[in-house]
Amino acid sequence: MSRSALVTGGSRGIGLAIARELAASGDDVAVTYRSGEPPEGLLGVGCDITDTAQVDAAFKRVEEEQGAVDVLVANAGITKDQLLVLMNEDDFSAVLDTNLTGTFRVVKRAVRGMMRKRQGGRIILISSVVGLMGSGGQVNYAASKAGLVGFGRSLARELGSRGITVNIVAPGFIETDMTAALSEDRQAEIKKNVPLGRYGTTEEIAKTVRFLASADAAYITGAVIPVDGGLGMGH
């Protein structure tokens, strides 16, 4: 039987790759998006995860179309990079509200349906290598992504007795529109610090998520899985 899967921030980049990978494995997949057009072939649901009412409405739409969510991938996030001494409080709060509190909102809503179904469930949080090793100019982003580790591991302890697994994927530098916009010198500098000497691909993140969402990963919970070419090893 196909499962009902929801990927937040799934209209482009890593989120879209994850959504397509889950769909290819036989799941019914919905994605949330804030702007633009929904991706073709997937159920697109407009949703700003900083708004609890929009989160609830999005889940109701997904439940009506494909049933209660069995697999949740919390991927939606933003950046507002700046050195701490120049960062304003609004930019710090906005990143935390989207990346961390927004994840709280969608996970809390998903867990209700998972517990009612009593058939287990899969929750996968997309963190970042930056949350493990830090990055100058990204104190807000790093704090939000590090917070997902503590959030996910605490939730894994809460939900383990119900057969629901919670895991965290920590991507490194990945080939996306954002990294493509960096100068060649900056890209070369980044790759020099990656033991494998290259960026990762969105497909490599997606395949890791597919594994964690599968029956093969039924005994894995509370894990932080780095997909970073070795950049953050030891953290």
Structural notes for this entry:
- With 235 residues, the protein is an alpha/beta fold.
- 46% of the residues lie in helices and 15% in strands.
- It has one domain: NAD(P)-binding Rossmann-like Domain (Rossmann fold, 3-Layer(aba) Sandwich).
- It has a seven-stranded parallel β-sheet, sandwiched between helices.
- It comes from Nocardiopsis mangrovi.
Please tell me the total number of domains: 1
* Overall helicity: 40-55%
The parts where pLDDT drops under 50 for at least 5 residues are none
CATH topology: Rossmann fold
Order of helices and strands: EHEEHEHEHHEHHHE
What is the CATH class? Alpha Beta
| Distance separating the two termini | 38 Å
Number of DSSP strands? Answer: 7
Approximate shape = globular
**What is the overall number of helices?**
8
Which radius of gyration do the C-alpha atoms yield?
17 Å
CATH superfamily: NAD(P)-binding Rossmann-like Domain
CATH architecture verdict: 3-Layer(aba) Sandwich
Taking the sheet with the most strands, its summary is: 7 strands, parallel
Structural classification: alpha/beta
Classify the beta-strand content into a percent band: 15-25%
What average pLDDT do the residues reach?
95
**Order of the strands making up the biggest sheet:** 3-2-1-4-5-6-7
EC number: 1.1.1.100
Pathway: Lipid metabolism; fatty acid biosynthesis
Subunit structure: Homotetramer.
Protein name: 3-oxoacyl-[acyl-carrier-protein] reductase
